[in-house]
């Protein structure tokens, strides 16, 4: 697992512990929704959540406690995001998705319509999740392949393919 992903997992676990400690002491925690985020008025949002600038949270969505949705992330209509989750920049959940508690959804990843991401999963950057996941699993895409073609020759190849 890349160090950056492991870091987000650690931060999510640590944030959950701090949240639980604050609740045990009787604190009420506030949530923040940026004025530059797009959210519908029927949004159900828990405590200690943050929805950042440019995030787009569609209608009929539920977000659990202590969940962070970063800039540019999209949460489709009728979606549910559990407690203690982290959706990285430009993560996308399409319609009627469920992300259960404790998940980290990496940058530029996509969860397709109606798919459930089970508890404590890590979805690596750029991943496309097209079926339900297994609890406590890590999903990641392979490293990109270096093609035996230089970039200055690419236009010639593409042009020949179109002719």
Major sheet description: 7 strands, parallel
Number of structural units classed as domains: 1
> How many H/I helical runs?
2
CATH class: Mainly Beta
Let me know the number of strands: 18
The strand order across the widest sheet is 1-4-7-10-13-16-18
Round the mean pLDDT to the nearest integer and report it.
91
| Beta-strand share of residues | 15-25%
* CATH architectural arrangement: 3 Solenoid
Q: Can you tell me about this structure?
A:
By secondary structure, the protein is an alpha/beta fold. The protein has one domain: Hexapeptide repeat proteins (UDP N-Acetylglucosamine Acyltransferase, domain 1), CATH 2.160.10. Helix content is 21%, strand content 22%. It contains two helices and 18 strands. The strands form three sheets. Strands 1-4-7-10-13-16-18 form a seven-stranded parallel sheet. Strands 2-5-8-11-14-17 form a six-stranded parallel sheet, with no helix packed on it. The longest helix has 22 residues.
Descriptive tags:
about 160 residues, alpha/beta, UDP N-Acetylglucosamine Acyltransferase, domain 1, 2 helices, about 20% helix, globular
Task: Summarize the topology.
Elements: H1 3-24, E1 32-33, E2 38-39, E3 44-45, E4 50-51, E5 56-57, E6 62-63, E7 68-69, E8 74-75, E9 80-81, E10 86-87, E11 92-93, E12 98-99, E13 104-105, E14 110-111, E15 116-117, E16 122-123, E17 128-129, E18 138-139, H2 151-162
Parallel strand pairs: 1-4, 2-5, 3-6, 4-7, 5-8, 6-9, 7-10, 8-11, 9-12, 10-13, 11-14, 12-15, 13-16, 14-17, 16-18
């Amino acid at each position: 697992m890349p160090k950056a992903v492991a870091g987000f997992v650690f931060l999510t676990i640590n944030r959950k512990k701090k949240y639980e400690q604050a609740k045990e002491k009787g604190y009420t925690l506030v949530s923040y929704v940026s004025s530059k985020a797009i959210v519908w008025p029927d949004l159900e949002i828990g405590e200690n959540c943050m929805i950042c600038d440019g995030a787009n949270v569609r209608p009929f969505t539920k977000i659990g406690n202590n969940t962070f949705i970063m800039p540019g992330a999209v949460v489709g209509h009728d979606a549910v995001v559990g407690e203690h989750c982290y959706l990285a920049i430009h993560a996308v959940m399409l319609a009627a998705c469920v992300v259960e508690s404790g998940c980290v959804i990496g940058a530029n990843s996509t969860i397709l319509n109606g798919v459930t991401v089970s508890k404590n999963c890590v979805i690596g950057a750029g991943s496309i999740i097209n079926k339900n996941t297994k609890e406590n699993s890590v999903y990641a895409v392979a490293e990109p392949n270096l093609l035996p073609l230089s970039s200055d020759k690419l236009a010639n190849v593409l042009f020949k393919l179109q002719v």
